[in-house]
Amino acid sequence: MMNHVERFRAIMNFHLFMFLCLGSILYAFPSVQKISDSIVDVEALTIDGPYGNVINGLSFQQEAVITHNGWQYVGYYNSSRHVCLSRRQLPNGSWERIEFTDYTFVSDDAHNTISVGICPNDGTIHLSFDQHAGALHYRISQANAATNPSTVTWSASLFGPVRDFLENGKGVSSVTYPAFFKTPGGDMQMVYRTGGSGNGDLVLVDYSGASHLWSNTRMFISRQGTFTDEYNTNTVRCAYPNRYQYGLDGKLHVTWVWRENTHANHDVMYSYSDDGGTTWFNNGSSTCKLSMNDMTPQKMVPLNGISTDSNIIGQAPASPIRIDSPGVKVVNIPRKYGVMNTQAQAVDAQGRVHVVVWHCNDESFAYAAEQGYPHTDTWGHPLARRYHHYWRDANGTWRHNEMKWVAGNRPQLYIRPNGDAFMIYNAPVSLTELASGLYFNFGHLTIAAATGESKWTDWQVIHTETGPFLNEMLADPVRFEQDQVLSIMVQESPATSRLPTPLKIIEYTLGP
């Protein structure tokens, strides 16, 4: 029989054991487990054009797959070159398809993707498709089409005709990269670019679920201003946003890179709005810079500090954000590093803004040169490309973590409430495949993760789903947020050019 000292020691040892066990659970590394693999369409479209072979699943689709009221929706082109919208009841319902046969996609331009939006306040479903610096192609469903999905007959008659306007009587003649996103109040907004690559503006429009109308079209990021670097001087450009997202604080956050009308992209920019996208603020902190310690071995120059007060840098539409707006640049990436546009952004539960982009640096250039590939390409040789995670801490300081492996295609980023981050991307089957340039047709779905506990210094690949797949990876952001499930759209690679292939949704639960 134990005396009181021995009993005390036994109790303490038990508590220590439980503490260690609990700690291992709390701080175990993130993992995923595959739970489903369903075919949306056995014959989805592939193309063969100047920007690659993908038309279903590209980084600038916000969104291609989205959940509302327990049903999931996917927008895509089928082998007949028709816009399709499929839906299923989660978690394992059968897919139902609407094929819009009154409109045919005729080009091989990979920019002409489909974006899907759902307005919670009136249950309308919105589609924008087939435009690259051309007239708007848009259609909207009847009200409540997504409110009680099981009571709705899923057919094309739910939707109105294709039209070229949002606001009544105001045709839109130039649209690229349309994106829908819901507001904190349950309405919706749309952003698109007018003009062209290196010479365009970003426009924001509001949709009201109460009136079922669009209004307040306004330009909020302008092409204007002068930029000079080692290559030349430019007076026009365009912004390539990573994503548009409202945080839990009700602020609308956007990050982007600039593309000059010559010689590629540069820098990471950041702004936020607290009034739905009319008034825009810069980073708003005297610590608006990158820690030099975080930048090694990148050897980039940290930014100078800015005002300790949040500065208004844009008042749409009269005074939009420009390249010379103070404090808007948060990461200095010269054009020589070949930063790619339209990549990953996430806002975590603590309001920290995260960006993952691939670009080169001096160290990776040296590595590629050692392998026999000197720096001659605008984007840097594929062997020199690395994923870089930039994030804004609570004090407004932007920090940096580099992933040391060779980057694949453009990633997407999702962060769960405890801060753990999951990045998805398509990794080439071989570096030989990647070495063909910006586009590759045969890759594997790859999931990487990092812990919030480590401040995302421990990035590693945690899962590879063998393809080959052809698309850039997109996941359902609502499914991730509500159900903690990575629901990822993939399309199988064609055996020969233009051959239609299966489009699928593969799902993973998150662990531990």
Structure notes:
- The protein has 512 residues and is mostly beta strands.
- The chain has a single domain (30-511), classed as Methylamine Dehydrogenase, Chain H.
- It is 9% helix and 42% strand.
- It is built from 5 helices and 30 strands.
- It has helices at residues 4-26, 292-295, 362-370, 431-434, 477-483, and strands at 31-44, 65-68, 71-77, 82-89, 96-104, 114-119, 124-129, 138-140, 176-182, 188-196, 199-208, 213-221, 224-228, 233-246, 252-260, 265-273, 279-281, 312-315, 329-331, 344-347, 353-359, 386-392, 398-406, 412-415, 421-428, 443-450, 460-469, 474-475, 485-491, 501-511.
- It has a 5-stranded antiparallel β-sheet with strand order 13-14-15-16-19, with no helix packed on it. A 4-stranded antiparallel β-sheet has the order 1-30-29-28. Strands 2-3-4-5 form a 4-stranded antiparallel β-sheet.
- A hairpin with a 5-residue loop joins strand 22 and strand 23.
Distance between the termini: 40 Å
CATH architecture: 7 Propeller
Profile the largest sheet. 5 strands, antiparallel
Number of strands: 30
Shape: globular
Condensed summary:
By secondary structure, this protein is mainly beta. The chain has one domain: 7 Propeller (Methylamine Dehydrogenase, Chain H).
